[in-house]
Amino acid sequence: MPAWLFALLLALAAVLLILALVWLGFYLLKRHRRRQPRTTRFIRGDIGVAQLEDKVRKEGRSLSRSTSMTSAAARGTEANRSRFYIFAGLFSVLFGGLLVKLWSLQIFQGSYYAGKAAANMAETVNLPAARGRILDRNKKVLATNSSMTVLTASKTLASDSGVIHRLSLVLGIPRAEIKKNLLDDTTGQGASRVFAEDISVRQVAFIKEHPTLFSGVNVDVRAVRHYPHASLACHILGYTGSPTAADLKATDANGNLLHQATDVVGKDGIELQYESLLSGTNGYQKYVVSSDGESVQLADQVDPVNGNDICLTIDIELQERTDQILKTLIKTTRQGFYKHADAGALICIDVEDGGILAMSSYPTYKPQELS
Questions:
Q1: Of 120, 78, 86, 107, nearest to 290 (Cα)?
Q2: Which of 50, 255, 270, 304 could disulfide-link to 283, CB 3.0 to 4.6 Å?
Q3: What is the 3 state secondary structure string of 143-170?
Q4: What global pTM score does this model have?
Q5: Strands 310-311 and 134-135: what pairing?
Q6: Kind and range of the H or E run holding 303
Q7: Taking Cα atoms as reference points, which of 273, 283, 284, 246 lies closest to residue 143?
Q8: In angstroms, rounded to a whole number, what is the distance separating the alpha carbons of residues 367 and 144?
Q9: Which residues contact 232 (CB under 8 A, 6 or more apart)?
Q10: By C-alpha distance, which of 367, 62, 110 is closest to 234?
Q11: pLDDT, tens digit, 9 for 90 and up, residues 183-219
């Protein structure tokens, strides 16, 4: 039977039940009135004819008045009864609609709302995996991860104007910016928000020395991409950044999303070419949250799997020499016959296996700043 037909039949049954109860009430009330005893009047025999006629005449007038009053009362009763029927009909329709809606919520859509309630009870917090390192042919580090001190807090801290004001004074960050970061839901409802990055040791010490003034503020350490050789081999290594809209929609063979909004992805060079190897696999923490959005209990946790290291054929020492040679050549060219020389490239190849030993390009940039 279709769901809409079942709901219609249920509503009709509810209306008929209410009408039957109303009719039963009227029937019982009418039957009770019929059972009331009648009073019999007797006329004394010693009353005279004149007195009897006068008494009958008076009783006739009283009877006519009582009859008119009874007719008016009957008309009022009929009007009240009509109003009662209308009210009972409206009540039946409203009660039937309420029953239909209740059935729809609890039976027809019960599984849907049960799933929504279960989803609201649990909140998943993303645990980003550490990005793999990039090494040269001699295992010297070209790109790695470094630690950065950050401040985190729950979403509820945004409503504490006193703490927000004190944080703004200590960190030199506008209060609106701190509130914006705290209200950001991209990391999950129950997750701690990062509202300030690259905090100095002095600022951290002041906050930790005054815990009552900064209640709810936590000092955390996060991993960031670090290039120890500055601009050296920047065109080879590339740089990292936040995922784009297309990155957030990308999925693997099983249909799972490859990136979260808080991930760091490769944007150019080796960082982009070997993104699948360097990025690793994120973990998560699943919390049971209260109706206020506060984390109550850790229900499940999967630790992240760090990304793989990549070893290149580049020799970083030779790369440094070729960079210097290229800069010198461009400078000499500008002083000589071509004053507008402002770019160039220099590549060193291993003649035995064809591996790239150095690849210089000018002008350069610092991937640390772009990342």
A1: 120
A2: 304
A3: EEEEEEEEEEECHHHHHCHHHHHHHHHH
A4: 0.56
A5: parallel
A6: none
A7: 273
A8: 12
A9: 316, 319, 320, 323
A10: 367
A11: 876 554 445 678 888 888 899 889 888 888 888 888 8
